[in-house]
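Running log. JK asked me to keep both predictions on one page so they can be read side by side. First protein, sequence followed by its tokens:
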Amino acid sequence: MSRLLGTVLVGLAAFVLTGVMSGAIASAHPEPATKPVASKFFAGYLVSKTKGSLTSATTTVVVPNITCKKSYSGVGPSIVVETKPNKKNVYFVDVAAVGVGCVKGKPEFESVLQVNGSSSNDISFAAGDKVTMTVTVTKSRTSVSVDDLTSGAHKTRTGAGKVGEYAYVGDQGLQINNYKTPLDPFTKTSFSGSEVNHKSLTAEKAVAYERKRGKTLLIAVSKLSSGKNFSTTFKHS
């Protein structure tokens, strides 16, 4: 299987997500685990639709701050939808995200929208902004969007239709100008109103993931509240 992540340079840096290229997350258990599953790349909740199709995913995140102890580092609060493989066994990931990065030791907050393998950074955010991220996938059309509920900024990008299979709601890795960044301490990040196919994560039997390196916990994930709300917490870089 192949996944292609393109970049569009905006300003001084181009942000794209990493981790979704690994294929490691897509082997999630179909039923909720008693403890979060360990991942090298992801912290959050995963919904699998191996039977039927996944048509929409949304969440609202409060943009975290980041310390920038490192010159280049970052994290990507996001919605990622992975499609079912086509006849050539190729699948894509469609993304609506906030890139929370450090560029030359200074924080930058940029939207990351990816559709049909092409990624763009269209909007700048500020720490503390409340941003809704949505991915809609149908056989006729794919749409990815971010709405900054604080500033009023909005951007949608569209592409060819697909059939969705997995939805990742949470923190992915961040790549800046082709450099896969390490983590830097960031503030506790809240995700609210999270839905897949217009149902709560609990109703869709979402599986919790925490990001780990060996036995070291990097990003912890909380339990769900009201079936739709959770938080991620930085633990170690």
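And the second, directly underneath as requested:
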Amino acid sequence: MRKTVCVDLDGVLADYSSGYKGPDVIGDPLPGAVEFTRALGEFAEVVIYSVRCSPEFRPGSVEARVRPVREWLQAHGFYFDRIASGEGKPVACAYVDDRAVECDPQGLFGPELGMAAYQTALARCRLLARLKHTKE
């Protein structure tokens, strides 16, 4: 059984440098993004997730929420197994997101990080909170 890796759409696979332009307006694919998803697919189930597919962001059926994302991914040749429909955080071994803030105080990469993990995460959160083109 392959492990699942969740990959964010905007800012990871699609250009998001201009910010949000509407529910059906997805930026151009970022260089290397298609190849990235294909490489992931060699060892993991690839789940695409986006706030665009959440019921709070886009009311309607699951199909209506995911259709524009699926069509965009297929049109550009991305590899994916499924698209998360915005009903909670998908279970995965890894999450790839341009807004991710790693915090590992228990030490997946070594327990010596401890409190430093919180300080590093806090600094990154402050930086992200100051950006003008956040996805809120």
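Observation for JK regarding the second prediction: The two ends are 35 Å apart (CA to CA).
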